[in-house]
């Protein structure tokens, strides 16, 4: 089962990381989910695929009432991001899901309808979650043509979706990046192939640097914190991307 670990807490404002399932099948990619708590209200980012729904649900149940999850946030349309939507709605039909407007008519193939989904405009938007003001931040073409990240300015945490992702070997299960130079080797191939636009990459780097996050939380791999956040942004800015075409 996945484990739930609190990575930030200030009063009743909390971020909990749901990660590292030792029983996960090797043929599915490992994912991180983040539960953002404000009082009794919870929001779950990129809740994952249907095959990991039981593991995510069990881990959350150990730390919070799943019925306290008011909304989901999906960074983009992939199955490892949001194919569990129908199962979450079976549990709580009142849930809403924030998603780029680009995917608002595609995601219902996983579940839900136009009452479930809250489309985010291309330029992003802010919305209330409990006592918090969260910001949906554009990251288009960084893996997906309609892509959104989520920034919590009170905690200074950026949920960065696939940006910052690393495909870690089984023996490297740490939740936080501790040796940047070693860690980034596991991120390089992923970013070279899955990030398709240099223009979009540089736009994101400028945008992320201005946010000045203290933690950057990707959907795969380990969490960057402190000076490693800016080290990642600088590394990404210099990395050639979109190199999957072979002639």
UniProtKB/TrEMBL annotation:
CDD domains: flavodiiron_proteins_MBL-fold
Family annotation (InterPro entries): Metallo-B-lactamas, ODP_dom, RibonucZ/Hydroxyglut_hydro
GO molecular function: hydrolase activity
Keywords tagged on the record: Hydrolase
Residues spanning the signal sequence: none
Domain Metallo-beta-lactamase: 30-220
Gene3D superfamilies noted in UniProt: Ribonuclease Z/Hydroxyacylglutathione hydrolase-like
PANTHER family registered for this protein in UniProt: HYDROLASE, METALLO-BETA-LACTAMASE SUPERFAMILY, METALLO-BETA-LACTAMASE DOMAIN-CONTAINING PROTEIN
Protein name: MBL fold metallo-hydrolase
Organism: Leeia aquatica
